[in-house]
């Protein structure tokens, strides 16, 4: 028994040891401004990807959807590897190639055996620099994207959050959807797509990130940062340099507006409601406190189980009174602004009660958050933070996104210190700063007859206390 106990203790690392033993992120900037970053690990595979400061926020009303269109075409061949040749080369490595586009960034990444790191870098450079944009492929993908847009209309959670952006940032670039409009997709030309790539795919707005390890005589070693830098110099040297304005694009401020969008459809079975106030940008330290506040609110879905015994007060009330099918808070950040709010799905006759309780939970955070629930929320955040260590893809994405958002990779030890510094008074003060007596943005879809007038919702953003 003593031997088993000793073995268990030897094999388990404490939370503090885990944070302390995370390898350092090495960063090198090439002459053309491309940042190359890597983290070693004891994984037999690696993930390498390119993160680009480009997305729907960089599009105008006529070109909205161009970035999403380019992402689709990027996997359909390059000038060097036309059509199926590109796909076969990726498959011959046993690799997984993927990508995504958001409002402020675009990413392409490959997960492969670490011995194929240099080849993965070459494929990514070809994809980014030499996308073929063939007319035949453009027309084919146009039909695919139009079909995707129809399917996306059925995802009411995403539709509601897109409406929320549209009303919160009306008249600005953040009001655009990532996918673009049906009308735009029908009329975007090869010239539009080529112009988007030439304008935004510049070296100082890119990060080449890698995470993983490699086998060497049956021993797993960390990937070589020198090897990654050499491969980047060889294959990304052709990515054009950019002026100072391109390095940090002069984006117009997307002004937040307290307003609402209602898309009533009584034929739908459930109502989707989203409510948000303006939150901070990525680099604002208030984000840590707001994330703690969201962890206090918690999230709930009927499939979770647990019912009234959950630590989330809002979840317990929702279960006790059968008020919703699910709810989830969010803190969505952008370069200079953000949306801090919640989204819930409920039956038509529960809309008013659920909104009342959710806003009441916000008011409670502003006025009477307690140390015990803050401690619980901080432990939840720490668990979510350490979960970022699971798998090379999540680590790689973390590196790429951090360098774009913050200009550096923030160590988990620093995040832990920021979380530890939060107390109940900070939660009350920061929540009051962003929530209390603020005009919210509201988006509602479905059978929403019971959703009260905007002025009534606005009156729920403060308490009259004697």
TrEMBL record:
In this protein, which residues make up the domain named Peptidase M16 N-terminal? Answer: 35-181
The source's superkingdom equals Eukaryota
Residues in domain Peptidase M16 C-terminal?
188-380
What's a Pfam family in this record? Peptidase_M16_C
**Does Cytoplasm appear among the keywords?**
no
Q: Which InterPro entries match?
A: Metalloenz_LuxS/M16, MPP/UQCRC_Complex, Pept_M16_N, Peptidase_M16_C
State the signal peptide span: none
**What GO cellular component entries does it have?**
mitochondrial inner membrane; protein-containing complex
Subcellular localization: Mitochondrion inner membrane
Q: How does the protein associate with the membrane?
A: Peripheral membrane protein
Write out the entry's keywords from A to Z.
Acetylation, Electron transport, Membrane, Mitochondrion, Mitochondrion inner membrane, Phosphoprotein, Respiratory chain, Transit peptide, Transport
Please give the Gene Ontology molecular function terms for this protein.
Answer: metal ion binding
Q: Which family does it belong to?
A: Belongs to the peptidase M16 family. UQCRC1/QCR1 subfamily.
Oligomeric and partner information: Component of the ubiquinol-cytochrome c oxidoreductase (cytochrome b-c1 complex, complex III, CIII), a multisubunit enzyme composed of 11 subunits. The complex is composed of 3 respiratory subunits cytochrome b, cytochrome c1 and Rieske protein UQCRFS1, 2 core protein subunits UQCRC1/QCR1 and UQCRC2/QCR2, and 6 low-molecular weight protein subunits UQCRH/QCR6, UQCRB/QCR7, UQCRQ/QCR8, UQCR10/QCR9, UQCR11/QCR10 and subunit 9, the cleavage product of Rieske protein UQCRFS1.
Mind telling me what this protein is named? Cytochrome b-c1 complex subunit 1, mitochondrial
Q: Which organism is it from?
A: Malurus elegans (Red-winged fairywren)
């Amino acid at each position: 028994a003593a031997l088993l106990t000793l073995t268990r203790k030897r094999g388990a690392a404490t939370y503090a040891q885990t944070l302390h033993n995370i390898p350092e992120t090495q960063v090198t900037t090439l002459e053309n401004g491309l940042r190359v970053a890597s983290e070693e690990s004891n994984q037999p595979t690696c993930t390498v990807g390119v993160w680009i400061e480009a997305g729907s926020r960089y599009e105008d009303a006529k070109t909205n959807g161009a970035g999403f269109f380019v992402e689709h075409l990027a996997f359909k061949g390059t000038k060097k590897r036309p059509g199926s040749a590109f796909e076969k080369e990726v498959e011959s490595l046993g690799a997984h190639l993927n990508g995504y586009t958001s409002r402020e960034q675009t990413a392409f990444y490959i997960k492969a055996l670490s011995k194929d790191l240099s080849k993965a870098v070459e494929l990514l450079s070809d994809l980014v620099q030499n996308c073929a944009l063939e007319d035949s492929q453009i027309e084919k993908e146009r039909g695919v994207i139009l079909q995707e847009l129809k399917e996306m209309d059925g995802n009411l959670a995403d539709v509601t959050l897109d409406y929320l952006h549209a009303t919160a940032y009306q008249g600005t670039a953040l009001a655009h959807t990532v996918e673009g409009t049906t009308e735009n997709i029908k009329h975007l030309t090869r010239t539009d797509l080529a112009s988007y790539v030439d304008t935004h795919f510049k070296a100082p707005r890119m990060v080449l990130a890698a995470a993983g390890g490699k086998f060497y005589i049956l021993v797993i070693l960390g990937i070589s940062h020198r090897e990654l830098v050499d491969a980047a110099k060889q294959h990304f040297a052709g990515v054009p340099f950019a002026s100072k304005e391109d390095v940090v694009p002069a984006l117009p401020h997307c002004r937040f507006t307290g307003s609402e969008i209602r898309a009533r459809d009584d034929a739908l079975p459930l109502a989707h409601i989203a409510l948000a106030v303006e939150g901070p940008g990525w680099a604002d330290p208030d984000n840590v406190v707001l994330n703690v506040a969201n962890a206090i609110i918690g999230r709930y879905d009927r499939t979770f189980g647990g019912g009234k015994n959950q630590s989330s007060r809002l979840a317990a009330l929702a279960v006790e009174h059968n008020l919703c099918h699910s709810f989830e808070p969010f803190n969505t950040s952008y370069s200079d602004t953000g949306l801090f709010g919640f989204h819930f799905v409920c039956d038509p006759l529960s809309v008013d009660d659920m909104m009342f309780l959710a806003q009441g939970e916000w008011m409670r955070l502003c006025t009477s958050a307690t140390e015990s629930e803050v401690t619980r929320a901080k432990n939840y955040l720490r668990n979510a933070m350490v979960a970022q260590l699971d798998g090379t893809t999540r680590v790689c994405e973390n590196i790429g996104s951090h360098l774009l958002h913050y200009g550096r990779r923030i160590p988990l030890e620093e995040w832990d210190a920021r979380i530890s510094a939060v107390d109940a008074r900070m939660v009350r003060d920061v929540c009051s700063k962003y929530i209390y007596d603020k005009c919210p943005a509201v988006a509602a879809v479905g059978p929403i007859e019971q959703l009260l007038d905007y002025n009534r919702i606005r009156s729920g953003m403060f308490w009259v206390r004697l």
